[in-house]
Amino acid sequence: MKLIVTIPAFDEEETISAVIREVPRSIAGIHKVEVLVIDDGSSDGTVAAAWAAGADHVFSNGRNRGLAFSFQRALNEALARGADIIVNTDADNHYDQSRIPDLISPILRQAADMVIGSRILKTLTMPAANKHGNRLANFVMQRLLRVEGIDVSSGFRAYSREAALRLNVFSGHTYTHETLFNAIDRGLRIANVPLEARSVERPSRLISSLPRHVWRAGIVILQSILRYQPLQAYGSVGALLILIGAVPFARFLYYTLSADSGQHIQSLILGTVLIGFGAQMFVVGLLATAVGWNRQLLEEVLYRQKDGAVQQASPPVELEEIGKRNGRVKVA
Question: pLDDT tens-digit profile of 12-61?
Fold first, then answer.
C-alpha cells in the first residue's frame, strides 16, 4: 500500500519545509510514503526548499494556474506514480501532518473512499471575517449535501485510488466544495475526522480579497448545484414561482366567484405567467437531469480511460533524480 502526500504550493518558501518534514514516513499498513509538491509558479525559493526538506517529487505549473488546477494535477501525478492513497495538505502548515495516520485510517479499514480532516473552527484563531465565512459556508453546504459536521472548506483530505480516479475538478478557483458535490454524485463514501488546525498569521494566498473570494466561491457552489443537483435547483425555483403565482390567481378566482372579475383580469394574467414560468423550470430541471445522466456516462468512460492509463504509466524516475540533483523541476 503506497501513500503519496500532495502539497500544492505558491510562494511558500518559509513554511513548506516544516510541512514536508512533519509528514510521517512510517505508518502501519503503508509500505511506502512519498511527498509530491506542485509548485504553482512560485517566485521565491519554494522549489529549492521542497527538495531540501526531502520531497520525493516536485512539479511546476510554469505559471500561477490556481489552486483547483494544482489540486487536479497533484491527483493525476500521484496516481501516475502508483498511489493507493493520496493525502492532500496545504503548504502553509495550517494542518497537522502528524495526524495523517488518523486521516487515512477509514480508508485502510475500507470504511470510506474520501476522508475530510475537519477543523474545529470554534477553537481556531483566524480573522473574524474568515472564521464567520467558513461557518456560513459549512452551514449552507452541510444542508445542501446532508453532510453534518464536515468542514467543507478543509483542504486536509485523504482519497482512495478509486476516489482520486473518479473525481473531476472543473472550477478555476477552489476544489473543496465542488469535489464534495462530485463525490456524492459518484456514490463515494465520505468520512469525517475532526482535527485541530494551526493558526496562520500571514494573509491567505487563496483569499487575497475576501469579497472576491466569497463571490468566486459562491459561483463555484452555484455551478456545482446546477451541474450535480439540477432537478432540485430548477424544481425549487419552479415551486417558488408557482406558489407566488397562485396568490394573484386565487385572488382572481375569489373575485370571479364574487361576480366582480372584470376589474381583476391583471391578477389572472400575472398568476398564469408565473405558474407557466414555474412549470417551465420543472421541465428545464428534467432536461438538465437527462443531461446529467449523459455526464455520468461520460465520467464513467473517463474513469476507465484514466484507470487504464495509470496502470500502464511508468514514472520517469531517472529524470526526477536528475532534477533533484540539479535543483530543477519538470514543467507542465
Answer: 999 999 999 999 999 999 999 999 999 999 999 999 999 999 999 999 99
| Angle CA 101–102–106, to nearest 5 | 105
Distance CA 224, CA 252 (A): 39
Q: How many CB atoms lie within 10 A of CB 308?
A: 10
C-beta neighbour count of 210 within 10 angstroms: 13
| Spans of all domains in the chain | 2-227, 230-311
Distance from C-alpha of 295 to C-alpha of 185, rounded to nearest angstrom: 11
Residue 161 identity (one-letter amino acid) = R
Which residue has cell 406558489?
243
CATH class label, 2-227: alpha beta
Q: What's the pTM value of the predicted model, to 2 decimals? A: 0.79
Residue among 21, 37, 27 nearest 3 (CA): 27
Beta strands in the chain (DSSP E): 2-9, 32-39, 57-60, 85-88, 114-119, 157-160, 190-195, 330-331
pLDDT tens digits, 151-186: 888 999 999 999 999 998 888 778 888 999 999 998
Instruction: For the chain, give the longest Cα–Cα distance.
Output: 92
Tell me how far apart the alpha carbons of residues 194 and 231 are, in angstroms, rounded to a whole number.
32
Contact criterion met (CB below 8 Å) for 40 and 119: no
Residue with cell 495523517: 100
> What pairs with residue 59 in β-bridges?
38, 330
The Cα 130–Cα 128 span in angstroms is: 5
